[in-house]
Predict the structure.
Amino acid sequence: MATIQETRTAIPGHVPAELVWDHDYDEFAAEKADPFRRVGELHGGPDILWVRGLNNGPQGRRPGWLPTRHALIREVLTDTDNFLSGGDAGMMSVIGADWKLIPLELNPPQQQQYRKVLEPFFSPASINALDDAVRSACDELIDEFAGRDGCEFAGEFAEKFPSHIFLDLMGMPRGKLADFLTWERGMLRPERPEQAVEAMSAIADYLQEFIAGQKQAPKSDLMKGIVSARFNDERPLTDTEMLSICYILYIGGLDTVYSTLGWIVWYLAQDIALQDRLRDNPEEITRAVEELLRAFSTASTQRRVRQDMEFHGVTMRAGDIVQVSLPLAARDPEAYEDPHRVDIDRPVRHIAFGTGPHTCLGLRLAKREIRIVLEAMLARFRNIRIAAGESHEFHTGNVFGIDRLPLEWDRIETAA
Ligand code: HEM
């Protein structure tokens, strides 16, 4: 690790000394059992920090700007004239690919042209049509441990659930589930770094083969839409564009859903009164999901400064990295009274799914998935709690994720 002196000499000339925070953001967040509360401690300092270590995807760790306030984070996400998505090399460069993730790593207006193709498949009506599939994937997984008095929720449920949903969304054969679970585990919890790269390559290979088949006979509304889409109403999508879109639809809902579910269930396991309230009043679950998403906004993203400029009195240079931390936005006391308290009665407007042109395309699906999981868990189990003598394990990074969540509960016997 660099000494303070070494780090200071590496600070670019346009960064004022009083904004330098000589820490690694992810290491700092991981120092306490609750990374959300931990990063909330930064609200006692400047509204914009220059941080020594930020997660920069395939490029490793880099220094950059960290706005700490909800209002500034919202501004970065909506100001696409000054803050750009996608770095020099896209995320897929780790497997040697030269294409970027569509639409995530592109910028308006091109990014919006691609979104137009995809949006109909994430409309309220399209998500309603997936309801039964989401419910049966959820029930199937819960059935595997419902006869026991507990489970390891991260590994036995949260990790598996997104792959089930993806197969249904795309119209992929159920027989592919075992491969997807292996790839998912390789990406999310690799035992060695190469395992993540191998898994990412295997997914790309399979998606390529799948798309080739779908061009002849698409198996889902989504794939029908993708293979027959016309970019800008002019030309069909190329094979690489289709691959890129399918890839982001898989990884966009993987780590995020897994981790958000993990933190939400971790919280509920410590709030039996809320469990009882929601079990007795299931119509409140939709509202509770919004507040839980607010409190456990797990994702962060990045932007690059497009040109030299002033941002709220801070000089930023073209190419500077800006870390957009949604956990920080979620716990800002200037945006939410008593931000660390989960209060399902508060009026909630959150940016757990980002905001602006890149707002999560899958947000309706994600909310539906979380609601269905809570309904199913609460209907089957009472007094869900962290298993005696155990505790959770987690990691920080671009998604704050739960690696292990040992639970126990009292089973609710249902009439046969
Ligand atoms: C709780 C679950 C989820 C969370 C917290 C989440 C969070 C986010 C965030 C913060 C962004 C914006 C990134 C940026 O501005 O750079 C985003 C974008 C995106 N998400 Fe999600 N997401 C979730 C679930 C999903 C699901 C289930 C899907 C797909 C089925 C999905 C697909 C996408 C796509 C395609 C984008 C890129 C949109 C664009 O660039 O126009 N997400 N997500």
Summary: The pocket of protoporphyrin IX containing FE is lined by residues 77, 85, 103-104, 111, 115, 248-249, 252-253, 256-257, 260, 298-299, 301, 326, 352-354, 358, 360-362, 365-366 (CB under 6 Å). The domain at 4-411 is CATH 1.10.630.10 (Cytochrome p450). Residues 1-9 have pLDDT under 50 and may be disordered.
